[in-house]
Design a protein that fits this description.
Layout lengths: L1 E7 L4 E5 L9 E3 L8 H4 L5 E6 L9 E2 L4 E5 L7 H16 L7 E5 L3 H6 L1 H7 L5 E2 L6 E9 L20 H12 L18 E5 L10 H10 L3 E5 L1 H4 L4 H7 L3 E5 L15 E5 L8
Parallel strand pairs: 2-4, 5-9, 6-7, 6-9, 7-8, 10-11, 10-12, 12-13
Antiparallel strand pairs: 1-2, 1-9, 3-4
Helix pairs in contact: 4-5
């Protein structure tokens, strides 16, 4: 939306203010990327997007000179695969081109999630986040994007992306955000004297590796320096991102935790174990 855009957070309303009388369809939008999942979308707060004439629109109480991007931190937040597929990658695609000169307006606010990924959010936007669930002001913007678009699971389609962004570009953005030191793996052989680092992602509920100790011993016997990470350790960003980036190989049973591969250096190896049986996915 380009022009006079007014955001009324607690009223769940976004107004496009124009003196033209052209037909404008009133839309009800839920600003989350998984549009094809009706059940999921019902968990997301609905926003009313409509047109208003200048004499009908409420007066601005806060003026902004940068665009706004409206999105939700509801849905499946907290699952690292969905954090990236549904929010972080789409948010990068929508806003990286602004080089920080864009404001985020968030509904279904999960502050713990914002703080977890704050290093990435601060690179994308130089402005405080607007919490639409609690703000009573009328915020006026020169343009707005309402909602985010996901191209595919944990991926980017450069043909659809602004400026032809790729996953390589996104991973460079991750390294910048978390100050990760290794852009790519280094050669490991007998001459280098360095043992390759193997990270094993462990699950403690379903799909757990029952012979964990034997697996670690076997990997060490063939020359790996083994690092293990249970669910508790994976929550400690950015510390865990640096651990992953220090490794050459990641191994784990199929699950969201493998999405942490995004912190690996380029040319690293990922080994996914698929359990035998009816997995249900």
């Amino acid at each position: 939306m380009e022009g006079d855009v007014r955001v009324l957070g607690t009223n769940s309303t976004i107004l496009f203010v124009s003196s033209t009388t052209q037909e404008f369809t009133v839309s009800k939008l839920r600003p989350y990327a998984r549009k094809w999942e009706n059940k999921t979308m019902q968990m997301i707060r609905e926003l009313n997007v409509k047109q208003a004439l200048p004499n009908e629109a409420p007066n601005c109480t806060v003026h902004h000179d940068v665009p706004v991007v409206v999105f939700s931190t509801g849905g499946f937040v907290g699952n690292v695969f969905h954090d990236y597929t549904d929010i972080l990658i789409p948010l990068y695609l929508a806003t990286n081109q602004y080089t920080g000169k864009v404001k985020f307006a968030v509904t279904d606010m999960s502050w713990w999630w914002i703080f977890k990924y704050l290093p990435m959010i601060k690179v994308l936007s130089s402005y405080p986040i607007l919490n639409l669930d609690e703000d009573h002001n009328v915020h006026c913007f020169p343009s707005a994007q309402i909602g985010l678009k996901s191209h595919k699971p944990l991926g980017i389609d450069p043909a659809q992306a602004p400026n032809g962004y790729t996953m390589q570009d996104f991973r460079a953005f991750i390294r910048k955000s978390f100050s990760l030191e290794r852009p790519s793996t280094t050669v490991v052989d007998l001459k280098s004297g360095r043992r390759p680092r193997l990270l094993i992602i462990l699950r403690r509920g379903t799909r757990a590796i029952v012979n964990e100790h034997e697996l670690v011993a076997a990997a060490e016997n063939i020359g790996f320096m083994v690092v293990t990470a249970d669910p508790e350790k994976t929550r400690e960003l950015p510390k865990f991102a640096h651990v992953v980036n220090s490794c050459d190989v990641m191994l784990g049973v199929h699950g969201a935790g493998l999405a942490n591969m995004l912190y690996l250096p380029a040319n690293a190896t990922v080994i996914q174990i698929l359990p035998w049986g009816n997995l249900g996915f």
